[in-house]
Known about the structure:
Layout: E1 15-21, E2 27-30, H1 33-47, E3 51-57
Antiparallel strand pairs: 1-2, 1-3
Amino acid sequence: MSQVFDADSDANEEYLYHVVCHDCPTESVSERASDAEERVDEHRSSTGHDIEVAQLPNERSA
Length: 62
């Protein structure tokens, strides 16, 4: 899994974190990197699926 952010960073309005599974329809967006990483870990642990998270610019903060 490639990570493009600091999972320990606090929430800020500049970025959102997109979680997507490549093996099922699971997908979500989080405001906190740590929340997104937790979702990835939980899903991977329970399913063994190929899931990852990416940092995206928050268009609303511009």
